[in-house]
# Entry
Amino acid sequence: MCGLDLPENLYDPVFPPGSEKEVLDSFEKYGGLFAGRSCVIEVDGEVAIRSETTAGGDFQTVIAREGVTVEEAEGRPVAGEFEAMVWPGLAVAKAPCTVPVNSDHNMMEGFLVYLQVSHPKDDEESVEVLSRLIQPYMAAAIDGVPCEERAG
# Structure
């Protein structure tokens, strides 16, 4: 999914039923050293999955920028290697590392990934599915960028 190496059983539940899947953008098309990547997948002409990686930022920045109707305080923390939160239809994870942001070798602290999905429609099911997906999704995403851990 999105050009990331993940087991299908983790991401299959976020795809709505439909016959025609079209990848409009995928992480795999972004080569080089930069943190910013995006992924958009449509099913039967409707956006089903939207995801982005970025340097810096926090959960509230993603919520505000994407215009989703959730409150940070309502998110469910997801235990694992990365700091992660999920809401119905949205999962966000971040890692403390330094990543390049442009060809001038400017660096930024932090790496963040968000995953916005239209399916499953049921809020609890969506939270459960995204809770299982976000940690391995972040691990696969961070493998694609030169993320250097912060010093002490």
